[in-house]
Design goal:
The structure is a homodimer. Chain A has four helices and two strands, in the order H-E-E-H-H-H. With about 160 residues, chain A is mostly helical. Chain A has a two-stranded antiparallel sheet with strand order 1-2. In chain A, a hairpin with a 2-residue loop joins strand 1 and strand 2. Chain A is elongated, with a radius of gyration of 19 Å. Chain A has one domain. In chain A, helix 1 packs antiparallel against helix 2, helix 2 packs antiparallel against helix 3 and helix 3 packs antiparallel against helix 4. The longest helix of chain A is centred in the last third of the chain and has 33 residues. At the A-B interface, helix 3 and helix 4 of A face helix 3 and helix 4 of B.
Amino acid sequence: MSKMKWVFSLVLRILALGATVSAAIVMGTSREKASFLSLSFEAKFSDIPSFKYFVIVEAVASLYCFLVMFLPARSSLWRFTIISDLIFTMLLTSSIAAALAVAQVGKYGNSHAGWLPICGQVPRYCDHVSGALGAGFAAVVIFLAILLSAIYSFLNPRLI
Amino acid sequence: MSKMKWVFSLVLRILALGATVSAAIVMGTSREKASFLSLSFEAKFSDIPSFKYFVIVEAVASLYCFLVMFLPARSSLWRFTIISDLIFTMLLTSSIAAALAVAQVGKYGNSHAGWLPICGQVPRYCDHVSGALGAGFAAVVIFLAILLSAIYSFLNPRLI
């Protein structure tokens, strides 16, 4: 891998690390106490399996980004990071899609299924979830950019 | 692209076409009438945004698989299908993750959010959704195999 391409890849991976760490922390700290009629309850991310999956995937992807940054520019392992990058792009995509689907139910409810929206009762919790989804989406876009730059290098082998 | 690799790719794409068409049809035909107390209602896929997204993505991916099969073995466009394959793998992954997250709520409900499970009232509807998710998962695995075989060719250029 050329020095310039290595620096470009490193910058993208630092950005990806920032996005995944932010997404994991913002989702992991999303909790709010509220009371409805005479009932008091606390909404937290671990109540919803899709949000737990989101936090786990973002945390593991953060660790991966962190470790890959220590790979030397001349390592032959760089050629194989395209496969691990692909797997993590798919995991991140699935985590954000699953969390977004449930967040949509939380925000708008579903009258057909009889599921009521909950964001009216816990608005700060929902804001946290929205922020985490934004950071998660940024992480997917950065991982896609890393993958596309690797594919571009393969299509133009002189650039590797 | 060598003749053998073209035939292998064609077989994978025929399998992917079968999986995406099955997923779209099985999800698109998921509807069931039921009555609860004195209320009568019909559950259908279009009631849930994630299921609509699933059907649209599977249908567009089917069309893509069908069109790519007509690409001649010697076309230079084959090198670029890796990018479109990547985009469709991500779209299929997101569609199945979103549908699975909502289907999980439909099956088990969520006591924290006050969402009741609905599969007890409409079991055949839920069976259809499960079948569609199975076919959608198979489509993702086949698309991943197509992508990995393309990456393997790039890593071993003599095989292209």
